Amino acid sequence: MKIVEDTVILKNTPINDNIFDMIIKAPAAAQYSAAGQFIEIYTGNGVNLLPRPISICEIDKDNGTLRLVYQVVGKGTEIFSKKKKGDILRIIAPLGNGYGIKTVKKSIFVGGGIGVPPLLEAVKQAEGEKIVILGFRSGTVLKEDFEKTGAKVLIATDDGSVGFKGNVVELMKSENIIGDVIYSCGPKIMLKFLAEYAEEKGIECFVSMEERMACGIGACVGCAVKIKNGDSFVNKKVCKDGPVFNSKEVLWND
User: Whole-angstrom Cα distance, residue 109 to residue 205?
Assistant: First the structure.
């Protein structure tokens, strides 16, 4: 169910220079949202007409709120970063297909960069043993939030400023991380190598694809990704058919 809702900003504060932590009052959207889905936010400035996709970080159905942790990467997100508590944002939500958290003994969550926030709600909903592997160029984001879920949290940084020096897959190999299922979100190259690791270890793996979206509702083909179809492939839309896919379905070498 897609809902157009005028929401109220309850919080919009910087985590660091270009990442912001926003909470919006969105009772209708929160009721129907699931881990791994996203929303579209309108800028409301009359110039940048297309809404911007932002992944859902946390869902509070009881209080009717959504938490959004987003990076300022262009004009739209810059506009959002300047919004204040009490301002109104028009959204379309929820959008896309989420993770569909499975009941298993051991779940692994792997995030890279701004692909980290969408995993927080997924970790909260998972049962059993949980291992979270987060990758950044430098420093960390949301580490304490993941630790509060009771998960074991491992960090990989390109510069070695925190935790393991290297990328998340290198960290997983060094620690021989195995489990029943992997949920992930991050850059495509990270997801590609993670998919290879999962196949090698015989672990079911779900990837949330990061692609540029224009409409966000499946009306255009700006976010097409190639999905295996026998000996050929079909183009599917990340915004409508994803953003979450089984890693074995994705044509990685295109």
Answer: 10
Considering the domain architecture, whether residues 90 and 134 belong to the same structural domain is answered as no
- Residue listed under structure tokens 């976010």: 223
φ, ψ (nearest 5 deg) of residue 24: -120, 145
The string of pLDDT tens digits covering residues 35-53 is: 999 999 999 876 677 889 9
Is 91:5 a contact under the CB 8 Å cutoff? yes
User: Which residues on adjacent β-strands are paired with residue 25?
Assistant: 8, 65
Closest by Cα among 94, 107, 97 to 183? 107
- The amino acid present at 46, given as its one-letter code, is G
Half-sphere exposure of 104 (CA within 13 A, CB side): 17
In a domain, 116, yes or no: yes
Domain that holds residue 40: 3-95
DSSP 74: S
Burial class (CB in 10 A: 0-12, 13-18, 19+), 187: middle
Tell me the mean pLDDT in the region 63-92. Answer: 96
Please give the Cα distance from 181 to 87 (Å, whole number). 40
pTM of the model: 0.94
